[in-house]
Amino acid sequence: MNILFILIIAMLDQITKYIAKNTLAGKNISVFKDYLELTYVENRGAAFGLFQNMKFLLIVITAIVIVLMLYYLLKSKDLNKWMRISLILISAGAIGNLIDRVTLGYVTDFIHFYIKDMFDWPVFNVADICVVCGTILLAINILFAREE
């Protein structure tokens, strides 16, 4: 069941990226004026544009992390539901971005959150949301989960 959830989330990520690539290229769509827009960006680096044009290194590191997380997820029978959910989200997001990196040479980003004249977050995608939310959930679980 864990693998099914991972595949569904990774597939949803790929579908949203496909739609973004085919509808947003060359234009921005304002969702909430001065706060949120949809815009097409090809990210050739990692989070926040770090490690630009280091495709091979990013692919290798991501693949290793995915394999380790999947192994842990599938072999550990005593994981609580929050640990499972966090690993599913992180794995699905990593797979979604890995698919882009391997097939396109870049990651498709399209969600741009900002506060006009104050704050400008880098453009991101559904896979990034999964990785960030999964990582936050994992940290909370590690810090505050009780032994049963």
From TrEMBL:
Indicate where this protein is primarily found: membrane
Q: Give the subcellular location.
A: Cell membrane
Active site annotation, chain numbering = D109, D128
What is the membrane topology noted in the UniProt record heading this document? Multi-pass membrane protein
The pathway is: Protein modification; lipoprotein biosynthesis (signal peptide cleavage)
Q: Quick check: keyword Transmembrane helix in the entry?
A: yes
Q: Name one GO molecular function term.
A: aspartic-type endopeptidase activity
E.C. no:
3.4.23.36
Q: Which UniProt keywords apply?
A: Aspartyl protease, Cell membrane, Hydrolase, Membrane, Protease, Transmembrane, Transmembrane helix
GO biological process terms, alphabetically, are: proteolysis
InterPro entries for the chain: Peptidase_A8
| TM stretches of this protein | 56-74, 86-104, 124-144
Q: According to the lineage, what is the superkingdom?
A: Bacteria
UniProt catalytic activity: Release of signal peptides from bacterial membrane prolipoproteins. Hydrolyzes -Xaa-Yaa-Zaa-|-(S,diacylglyceryl)Cys-, in which Xaa is hydrophobic (preferably Leu), and Yaa (Ala or Ser) and Zaa (Gly or Ala) have small, neutral side chains
Which terms in the GO cellular component ontology are assigned?
A: plasma membrane
- Family membership: Belongs to the peptidase A8 family.
Q: Which HAMAP family match?
A: LspA (MF_00161)
Reported function:
This protein specifically catalyzes the removal of signal peptides from prolipoproteins.
Name this protein carries in UniProt: Lipoprotein signal peptidase
Primary gene name = lspA
